[in-house]
C-alpha cells in the first residue's frame, strides 16, 4: 500500500485553493466599493439634479451588485469550509495511526490530543477568520481610494490603519505565550481527569475521590487563572480596537465635513470616504477579534506537523517480506522503559525454532513483562536485537507483522465492538470460519453462544460486561486468530479457572503442533506445563535457559515439612536467589 504524506497533501489542498480564494476576495472587495460609490452618486448627482430615473437606475444597479457580492461571498465561505473538511479527510487517518504508534513508542505522551488538534484546525479554517487574511491586502487599496477624495482624508485613514496594526501586533505579543500556557494547563487537567475516570473503581473503593478531586481542582484553577488573564487581556485589546475603529469612522466623517465646509470636497465624497475607511479597517479589527482562535489553530497545526513528521521519519514502510514461520532469535538484548535511563532487562540471549514453547519464569519485578515488550518491539532496545526469521522487527511493516503475531498482555483489555470483531482484530475480511476456529482454540466458542446475540454481542461501555476471566479468554482468542507464527502470552491464566486452564493448555499444545512458536510468561505452574523450554529471569537478567526439566532442576526445590534452622542473612547474587522459586508442586512466584 502506498504511504501517503498526509501533511504535504493537506498543505497542497490549501495552496491549490489559494488562487481561487484570492480571486473571490478580489471580486468581493471591488464590489465593496459599490456602496460608497452609490452614496457618492446619490449625494452629488441625484439630490442636485432631482432625477428620479437616475435614482431608479442606480438602485437597480446596486441591488444587482450586492446580490452578486452575496453569491460570491457565500461561495468563498463554502470554499473555506470545504478546505477544512478536505484537510480533515486527508489528515484524520495519518493522525489516528500516528497517535497509536506514538502511544506504544512513548506511553507518557498525550493521548488523543492530536485528534482534537485536527478538529481545532478544521473549525478555524471553516470559520470567517482566514477570510480576513485575504482581505487585509486590500487595505492599501481602500486607503488609496480615500486619497483620491482628498490627501487629508487619506492621511487620516492611513494613521488609523497604522494604529490598529500596532494593536494587532500588541495582541500577538501580549497574549500568544499566555494562551499557550493556559492551553497546556487545561490539557494537563483534562488528562488527569481522564486517568482518574479510567481508574474510577479503585479510586472509589480506596476512598481517593475527595483527594483526587482536590488535586484536579487545583490544576483546573491554575488553568482557569491563566485562561482568565489571557481572556481579559485579549478582550480589552479587542474592545479597544473596536472602539477605536468606530472613533476613526466618526473622525474621518468630521474631517470630511470640515473639508466639505471649506468646499474642498463634496458631501458625497465625505460620506463615501467614511464608508470606505470602515471597510478598510474591518479586516484588521476582525483579525484582532479572532486572535485567540487563530493562535489555538496555529498551535494545533504545529503539534500536528511535528507529530506527523516524526511519525514519517520513524515509520517508513520497508519492503514486504515473506510470511514468517516463527524462527525467533534474541542476542545480547538490553531494553529501556520509556523515559528511563537504566536498562530494565539486559544480557538476554536465546533462540527458538518454529513450534517451540518457551516459559519465562522468575520473581515479581524480575523483568519478565519488560522482556515481552522488548521482544515485541514495544519498548526500545539499547543493545542487541530481536529477529523473526532472520529479520529485525523494524524491517517489517508493523501492520503486516502484526498479522503474524499473537499477543495477550496482562491487562486483557477489549475494544468497543462485537465479540466477533474483537476476536478477529477488527479484520474487515474476517470470515466466520476463521473467527469460530480461533474461539474454539481458545475455548470461548461455547461462551460466545451463551450470549443472546452470540458472536454479535456488543462489548464495551454500552455492551455486555465480561468478567476478568472471560475477557482473558476472549483476548486469547484474539491472540491466536489468523494462525500467527509467534505468540506471546503474559500471565495468560492469571484470571482463569480450571476449565480455562485446561483450554489454555490445549491451545498451547495445538499451536505448537501447528508450528507456532509460543512464549508464555508464568507465575502459575499450569501455564508452563505445555512448553518444552524455560528461561529464568532475576534482577532483569537471564539466569538460566534450556530444556524445561534441566532448568527446573537448577532453579527449584521441593518444600519439606521438617523445620530448618534459620541462617543468618547473607548477601546473595541473582543466581543464588533462584532457589527461592518453585515450579511443579510448589507455586512459581
TrEMBL record:
Membrane disposition: Multi-pass membrane protein
Region (Disordered): 559-589
Assigned keywords, A-Z: ATP-binding, Membrane, Nucleotide-binding, Transmembrane, Transmembrane helix
Transmembrane segments: 21-43, 55-75, 132-150, 156-174, 243-261
Coiled-coil regions listed in the entry: none
GO cellular component, one term: type I protein secretion system complex
Gene3D superfamilies: ABC transporter type 1, transmembrane domain, P-loop containing nucleotide triphosphate hydrolases
Transmembrane helix is among the record's keywords: yes
Chief localization: membrane
Record's keyword annotation contains Transit peptide: no
Pfam family, one: ABC_membrane
Domain ABC transmembrane type-1 residue range list: 21-296
GO molecular function (one): ATP hydrolysis activity
Subcellular localization: Cell membrane
SUPFAM superfamilies documented for this protein: ABC transporter transmembrane region, P-loop containing nucleoside triphosphate hydrolases
Chain ranges of the ABC transporter domain: 328-564
Family the UniProt entry places it in: Belongs to the ABC transporter superfamily.
Protein name as catalogued: Type I secretion system permease/ATPase
Annotated organism of origin: Mesorhizobium zhangyense
Amino acid at each position: 500500500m502506498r504511504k501517503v504524506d498526509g501533511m504535504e497533501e493537506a498543505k497542497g489542498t490549501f495552496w491549490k485553493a489559494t488562487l481561487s480564494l484570492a480571486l473571490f476576495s478580489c471580486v468581493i472587495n471591488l464590489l465593496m466599493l459599490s456602496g460608497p460609490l452609490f452614496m457618492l452618486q446619490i449625494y452629488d448627482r441625484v439630490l442636485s439634479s432631482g432625477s428620479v430615473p437616475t435614482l431608479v437606475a442606480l438602485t437597480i444597479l446596486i441591488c444587482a451588485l450586492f446580490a452578486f457580492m452575496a453569491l460570491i461571498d457565500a461561495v468563498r465561505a463554502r470554499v473555506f469550509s470545504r478546505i477544512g473538511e478536505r484537510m480533515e479527510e486527508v489528515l484524520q487517518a495519518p493522525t489516528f495511526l500516528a497517535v497509536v504508534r506514538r502511544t506504544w513508542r512513548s506511553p507518557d505522551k498525550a493521548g488523543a490530543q492530536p485528534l482534537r488538534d485536527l478538529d481545532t484546525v478544521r473549525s478555524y479554517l471553516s470559520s470567517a477568520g482566514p477570510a480576513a487574511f485575504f482581505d487585509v491586502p486590500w487595505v492599501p487599496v481602500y486607503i488609496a481610494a480615500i486619497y483620491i477624495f482628498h490627501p487629508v482624508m487619506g492621511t487620516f485613514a492611513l494613521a488609523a490603519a497604522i494604529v490598529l496594526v500596532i494593536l494587532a501586533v500588541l495582541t500577538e505579543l501580549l497574549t500568544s505565550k499566555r494562551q499557550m500556557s493556559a492551553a497546556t494547563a487545561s490539557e494537563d487537567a483534562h488528562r488527569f481527569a481522564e486517568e482518574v475516570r479510567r481508574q474510577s473503581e479503585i479510586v472509589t473503593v480506596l476512598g481517593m475521590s475527595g483527594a483526587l478531586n482536590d488535586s484536579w481542582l487545583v490544576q483546573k484553577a491554575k488553568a482557569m487563572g491563566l485562561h482568565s488573564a489571557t481572556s481579559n487581556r485579549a478582550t480589552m485589546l479587542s474592545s479597544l480596537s473596536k472602539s477605536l475603529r468606530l472613533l476613526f469612522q466618526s473622525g474621518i466623517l468630521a474631517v470630511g465635513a470640515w473639508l466639505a465646509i471649506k468646499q474642498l470636497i463634496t458631501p458625497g465624497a465625505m460620506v463615501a470616504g467614511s464608508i470606505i475607511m470602515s471597510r478598510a479597517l474591518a479586516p484588521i479589527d476582525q483579525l484582532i477579534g479572532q486572535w485567540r482562535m487563530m493562535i489555538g489553530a496555529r498551535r494545533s497545526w504545529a503539534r500536528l506537523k511535528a507529530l506527523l513528521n516524526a511519525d514519517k521519519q520513524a515509520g517508513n514502510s520497508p519492503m514486504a517480506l515473506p510470511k514468517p514461520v516463527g524462527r525467533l532469535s534474541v542476542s545480547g538484548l538490553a531494553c529501556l522503559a520509556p523515559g528511563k535511563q537504566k536498562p530494565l532487562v539486559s544480557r538476554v540471549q536465546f533462540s527458538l525454532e518454529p513450534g517451540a514453547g518457551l516459559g519465562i519464569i522468575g520473581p515479581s519485578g524480575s523483568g519478565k513483562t519488560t522482556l515481552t515488550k522488548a521482544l515485541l518491539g514495544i519498548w526500545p532496545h539499547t543493545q542487541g536485537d530481536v529477529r523473526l526469521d532472520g529479520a529485525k522487527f523494524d524491517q517489517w511493516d508493523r501492520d503486516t507483522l502484526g498479522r503474524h503475531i499473537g499477543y495477550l498482555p496482562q491487562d486483557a483489555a477489549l475494544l468497543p465492538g462485537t465479540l466477533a470483531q474483537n476476536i478477529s482484530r477488527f479484520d474487515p475480511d474476517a470470515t466466520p470460519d476463521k473467527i469460530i476456529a480461533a474461539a474454539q482454540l481458545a475455548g470461548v466458542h461455547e461462551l460466545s453462544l451463551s450470549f443472546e446475540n452470540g458472536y454479535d454481542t456488543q462489548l464495551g461501555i454500552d455492551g455486555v460486561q465480561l468478567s476478568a476471566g472471560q475477557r482473558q479468554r476472549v483476548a486469547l482468542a484474539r491472540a491466536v486468530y489468523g494462525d500467527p507464527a509467534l505468540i506471546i502470552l503474559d500471565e495468560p491464566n492469571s484470571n482463569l479457572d480450571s476449565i480455562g486452564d485446561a483450554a489454555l493448555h490445549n491451545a498451547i499444545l495445538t499451536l505448537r503442533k501447528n508450528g507456532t512458536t509460543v512464549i508464555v510468561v508464568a507465575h502459575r505452574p499450569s501455564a508452563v506445563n505445555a512448553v518444552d523450554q524455560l528461561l529464568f529471569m532475576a534482577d532483569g537478567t537471564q539466569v538460566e535457559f534450556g530444556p524445561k526439566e534441566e532448568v527446573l532442576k537448577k532453579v527449584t526445590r521441593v518444600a519439606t515439612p521438617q523445620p530448618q534452622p534459620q541462617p543468618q542473612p547473607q548477601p546473595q547474587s541473582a543466581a543464588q536467589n533462584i532457589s527461592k522459586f518453585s515450579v511443579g508442586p510448589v507455586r512459581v512466584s
